[in-house]
Write a structure and sequence with these properties.
- By secondary structure, the chain is an alpha+beta fold.
- It has two domains: 5-146 and 287-292, Aminopeptidase, CATH 3.40.630.30; 154-278, Aminopeptidase, CATH 3.40.630.
- Helices cover 25% and strands 34% of the residues.
- It contains eight helices and 13 strands.
- It has helices spanning 20-30, 42-51, 101-115, 130-139, 176-179, 193-198, 241-250, 269-277, and strands at 5-6, 11-14, 60-64, 67-79, 82-92, 120-126, 142-152, 167-171, 203-210, 213-221, 226-232, 260-265, 280-292.
- It has a 13-stranded mixed beta sheet, with helices on both faces.
- Strand 9 (203-210) and strand 10 (213-221) form a beta hairpin.
- The radius of gyration is 20 Å and the shape is elongated.
- The protein binds coenzyme A (COA).
- Coenzyme A is lined by residues 30-31, 34, 70, 89-92, 97-103, 125, 129-132, 134-135, 138.
């Protein structure tokens, strides 16, 4: 039985856990010329895989002469009620690009996922990353929405009316289910309720309570100050509650780290303005793209 997709020079095959350390090295090499090269070590790479529900048995490596020259990491779960595979990083080392390696990896994995009954392929890609955007368009991915990555320049710009009347309480990942009623747009894959639950002790969720009712909350990575979810009830906006939640976060930020908010939906201008007023700036924009596996191009 054919176990991989082969061309005269490159071979693609599904991986397993034994490739973990090779993948870290190749990930660093492939993203070394990236707009925002990821700062990774073994622990952070493991966290990336866990956060995104990556299954190495269903992730692909591309090999040439025994050397891994590319990889496609895949996470699995439900997304908007559909069985979904999430591209948690596709890369080819710089010296082996434009030779069909990525195309070959997708040619291997898309038919397998379709046969497994997975309904859609989801990913995010930086809008200025022309090679990757071209690759994904060629594969048939369509843009769903744009997402902003925002970063604080330094300490928060103070808010004159930070709300001191709300009680701040620590919540659990299980509490997030009931808080989705506060959302104006759904979070991206890596910020979903399932992802927050997977990230375990490195995540913290703070709720703002008024008369025993949760009127706002923030879910973030402790120390690094990376916000995954943030919402204030529409009836309780412009009362300093969002600013209070940010101030609570900032008080436990590791010195030298900058607060970040990952993947703000561009259809939420009020949210973007809120963060800009506190001193955040849009650092980059991503497309969220989906390929339906019911009627895909391959
Ligand atoms: C994006 C990337 C993975 C493409 O890998 P690759 O093996 O070079 O791509 P392929 O040779 O399989 O190209 C397949 C198609 O993608 C598109 N493409 C790839 N590189 C391109 C480039 N530099 N410019 C324009 N289109 C490009 C083309 O449509 C190409 O088909 P064609 O050659 O018939 O025109 C690679 O450039 C890379 O590793 N970049 C850094 C990591 C990254 O940005 N990953 C994506 C975000 S997770």
């Amino acid at each position: 039985m054919r176990s991989g997709n082969e061309t005269p020079t490159i071979t693609c095959r599904f991986l397993d856990e034994s490739y973990f350390e090779v993948l870290l090295r190749k990930f660093q090499e492939a993203f070394s010329d990236y707009a925002h090269p990821p700062k990774l070590d073994l622990e952070r790479f493991r966290s990336h895989l866990v956060l995104n529900a990556v299954d190495l048995d269903r992730s692909v490596g591309c090999f040439e002469g025994g050397e891994m020259i590319g990889f496609s990491l895949n996470g699995f779960g439900q997304w908007n009620g559909r069985s979904t595979v999430y591209d948690a990083g596709t890369g080819v080392i710089p010296t082996r690009r434009r030779r069909g390696a990525s195309q070959a990896m997708f040619d291997l994995q898309i038919p397998r996922f379709r046969a497994d009954g997975i309904e859609q392929y989801l990913l995010e890609v930086i809008t200025s990353n022309d090679p990757a955007v071209s690759l994904y368009k060629k594969l048939g991915f369509r843009t769903q929405r744009e997402l902003f990555f925002m970063e604080a320049g330094g300490p928060l710009v103070p808010e004159s009316q930070t709300n001191v009347t709300v009680d701040i309480r620590v919540l659990s990942a299980a509490d997030l289910v009931g808080l989705s009623k506060l959302w104006c747009a759904g979070p991206s894959w890596q910020n979903s309720n399932e992802a927050v639950a997977r990230s375990g002790s490195s995540r913290r969720i703070l709720g703002a309570f008024l008369d025993g009712q949760c009127v706002g909350y923030v879910a973030y990575t402790t120390g690094m100050g990376r916000i995954a979810q943030f919402a204030v009830d529409t009836d309780h906006r412009r009362k300093g509650i969002g600013s209070r939640l940010l101030a609570e976060m900032e008080s436990e930020l590791t010195p030298g780290e900058k607060m970040q908010v990952i993947n703000v939906d561009d259809r939420l201008p009020e949210t973007v303005r809120f963060f800009e007023k506190r001193g955040f700036r849009i650092a980059l924009t991503q497309y969220e793209m989906i390929l339906s596996l019911h009627d895909g191009a391959i």
